[in-house]
Design a protein that fits this description.
Elements (H helix, E strand, L loop, with lengths): L36 H10 L10 H6 L5 E5 L5 E3 L9 E3 L2 E2 L23 H5 E5 L2 H10 L8 E3 L10 H4 L1 H12 L3 E5 L8 H8 L4 E6 L5 H7 L6 H13 L4 E8 L7 H11 L3 E6 L6 H12 L4 H11 L4 H5 L17 H17 L11 H11 L14
Parallel strand pairs: 1-5, 3-6, 6-7, 7-8, 8-9, 9-10
Antiparallel strand pairs: 2-3, 4-5
Amino acid sequence: MPAVQLPVLPLYKGRGAVSAPPHRFARDQREWLDDGWQAQAAGAQADGADAADEGGGWAAAQSAPVTEVREEKARSAIQRNDSPDIYFDHSVNPYRGCEHGCIYCYARPYHSYLNLSPGLDFETKLFAKTNIAEVLRREISHPRYQRASLNIGSATDCYQPIERELCLTRQVIEVLGEAGHPFSLITKSSTVERDIDLIAAAAQEQGAAVYITITSLDAELTRRLEPRAAAPYRRLRTIERLVTAGIPVGVSVAPHIPFLTDDMEQVLESARQAGASSAFYTVLRLPWELNTVFQQWLQAYYPDRAARVMQRVRDLHQVSEADRQRGKSYDSQSFARMKGQGLWADLVRQRFTRACERLGFGRERTVLDWARFEAWQQHQQRPASRPGQQQTELF
């Protein structure tokens, strides 16, 4: 099948997606078209033309979209997970959308349910659940709440840039810490260091673990893949600081993108030297609109290897020839979607396994202790005696 030639789209500084393709529920479909004026405008700018005299013109169209944050009142804080591929049962996401702009993010299609594009809208139109801590406290205090492994930041990075001002993730950790509820969190931001005091206190009781995602050590590549996330060297320093504070840290080498992020062994070695004690990986998966969003990015930045990358991605997921003809690049089958299947997936697994054995990584996940939460839960359910009302004697 010949490679689909996608248009070369404008690149926005500090953004991952190169366009805002319509979501799958949209009634109208629009396509980007270069009519030749873009190249002329670019040449005029290179020659020192003053775009302000033209009212902005092409320069205004090329300017990166600004970030918009909207307040949202959450009706529930805990999302239940029924997928056998994911290690946690519950998750808490203080935000919708993510300003990091990771082009490979599997959560991008969730923005379609908000009538927004999984492309630029996902990283520029954000939603902050300002009452998330209050709702979470109510849910874990409920008598029918069943304890389950809980992760913060599964569909959005809980330490994305807006967390520095809003502090919603810190509020969530405070609630969990007061209740002694074990939790894990995953991030690629150094802002997590701000909350070392809370996380370390929980970790002392075997109640917290942190996982840092390092996709690659290639700074130029990660700047394109994850434009507003911390640099790879900064994430390694974050691992060191968390470990020094007594917090168990694992490294997430995710996602593996063929012919792009091929330094898995180097990432694992650097993370181990920084103090990480566990590791896991996933392969690139492209559900729904993410298939288009990622391929547009790939054509814009790496047109010379775009066809090879997509061919190997489809091989990793063993996409049938009929599905390939329909443009599908991903198989959502349980037990296979995260790690892939077939020959190429097995080779990636062998690389990861051998590197972990050589470096001395332990189990994939840190085991957390529920004793404190069980005691807190029993105390919450114990009926409180009202002042002045003591049991009287019958005789």
